[in-house]
Amino acid sequence: MVYPGRLSRGCSRCKQRKLKCDETKPSCTRCLKYGKPCPGYEKNLVIRQEGTKFQVQDPSSGTVAVLPKPGRSHRGSSSSGSSSGSSSGSGSYSQPILDPNDFISTSLDVIPSWDSEALGYFMHQYVLPEANDCSGYLHFLPKTYLESPESSCIRVAVKASAYLSLYRYSKTKEHEIQAHTWHHHAIRGLLEQLRSGHEATSEETVVTMILLSIFDDIDGRGGHQKINPHLNGLIHILQRSNQSLINAPFFSWVRQQLIIKSFTADYHIVDPSWVTPSANPNPHLDNFRVVAVRVNQFMTSGRQLLAKLKQVNDPANKEPLMSPAELKAQLLAVIQEAKSIQHEIDEWISTIPRSDKWGTMCKDGKPSVYIFSSRYLGCYWINVFTTVIILQGSVIACYDILLTMTRSSVDLNLIMDKSKSGSEAKTMLTHIHKSIPFSMGNIDQEGTRIFRPESRSAYGCLLVWPLAVLARCRLSGDVEVRDARAALEVISSTMGVDLAHWVLNEWRSPLYPFIQ
C-alpha cells in the first residue's frame, strides 16, 4: 500500500516563491545568489507497507513480539543534504530497536499490518538508549513491551501512542482514529487496575500512566485543562508503593518529569528518598538530580510563603498570620537559602570534566554557538540552565516583595542583589540560546549546518519546557524569543510533539510575571 506525496521539484524557498530551482546540492543557485541559506530538498510522505513481518525475541524471557525489520526505512531514504553528509534524513528510522541478533524473520504475511509500522516509528522517535553521557529516554520501553502479555494495558497504551505519533507524521485520518480508539481502551484498562487493590501499585500501572502521558504530550490536547494530568496519579502511586518501583528502570523518566513539571506547573514536593543512585556510569551528571530536588523543595517553601503574604496584605483579614517584620525576615531567609543552592550548583559544575561540558564555536571572534559531545548532553545542559533560571526567578520575586515593603527607604543592597540575580538569569538564558542549534540537530560537532536534521521526537520532549521558558521570560532578548519560538514550532510540526504548541500559546507559568 503506497501513499506517495508530491515529488520534490526544488527547495522549499523556491517552491514558496514559485521559481524554478536547479536543485543543486547542498545549496541551490538561487539561494546562493540571494545570500540565503538553502532549506534543502525535503521529500513528502512515502509510507510503504511491507508484507513481511519480523519477530523480536527477548533472549532472557523468550517473549516474542512482531516489529518492523531493523535497518529498513519505511519513510523513504534520502541524503541529509549537509556538507559533511554525516546526518541521516529526518524521514528515516533505520535504527534497530534492540540488538539486531534478536530479530528473526518469519513467513510472508498477506495482510499488511499498520501495527508494526506504527510501533517501529514510535520506538525510533521516542526511545533513546542509555550511554555514558545519556541516562536515556524511555529506554526501558522495548524490553518492557516484550515482556508484557498480549492483553496487558502496556501494549494497548503503546499502540495508542504509536498510532498517534505516526498520524502526526503521516496526517492519515485512519491513524488518528486508531490512536484514539486504543487510547480509550487503555484508559478503561487503567481504571480497572486502579480499582483493584493489588494491581494499583504495579509496574504495569505505572508504565501505562507513562505512556498515556506521552500520548497527551503528542496530542497537545491533554494539557489544555491541566499539565500532564497523569502526574498526580503517579505521585499517589509512588507514595503508596514500596522501594521496588523507585528502583525500577522506568523511574528515571518519572523523576525527570516530576522535577520539570514542579518548575513549570504546580509545585509538587519530590520526596528526597526518590532520588536514588542510577546505573548511569557518569556520576558527575547523575548528581544533578540531588540539586534539582533541593530547588524543588525551595520552590515549594517559597510558594507557601507567598500564600502567607497574600493573607498579610488582605484587607479583610483582621488577624494576619505574621507581622511585616516577620515576613521580611522569612523572605531574607528564603533568599539566603537560594544563594546556598546556587553556590552548590556552581561547585558541582566546577567538578565536571571539560569533556562533559559545552564547547564554544566562535564567529568573528565572538562565541556564537555551543557544541556538545552528543545531542542528549546538549538537552541535559539546557535543562540545567533552566533550573538556574527558575531558581533566580524565584529570588527576583522575593526581592520585588522586599522592595515594595521598604518603599519609604531605598535599600541599595537589595537593589544590587536583585541585579545580580537578574544577571545570572540572563547568562543562563544566553547559554540556552547558544545551545539550541546543536541540541535541535541543526549543526554538527564541527559547526557545519545540517540541511536536513534528524527529527527525533525524544529530543523535542526534552527541550519543550526550557524553550518555553526562554520564549516567555521577561529577561529574554528579541532574538532569543524569536529563535525559541521557531524551535518550538519545529518540535510541534516536524517532531510531532504538539505540547510545544500549547506551551507556546496557552501555558501560564506559576512564576508570572517573570515568565509571562
From TrEMBL:
Keyword Nucleus: yes
Keyword terms of this UniProt record: Nucleus
PANTHER family registered for this protein in UniProt: TRANSCRIPTION FACTOR DOMAIN-CONTAINING PROTEIN-RELATED (PTHR38791:SF12), ZN(II)2CYS6 TRANSCRIPTION FACTOR (EUROFUNG)-RELATED-RELATED (PTHR38791)
The protein's name: Zn(2)-C6 fungal-type domain-containing protein
Domain spans labelled Zn(2)-C6 fungal-type: 10-38
SUPFAM superfamilies: Zn2/Cys6 DNA-binding domain
Region ranges (Disordered): 57-95
Annotated InterPro entries: DHMBA_Reg_Transcription_Factor (IPR053175), Zn2-C6_fun-type_DNA-bd_sf (IPR036864), Zn2Cys6_DnaBD (IPR001138)
Ranges annotated as biased composition (Low complexity): 76-92
GO molecular function, one term: zinc ion binding
Annotated organism of origin: Bionectria ochroleuca
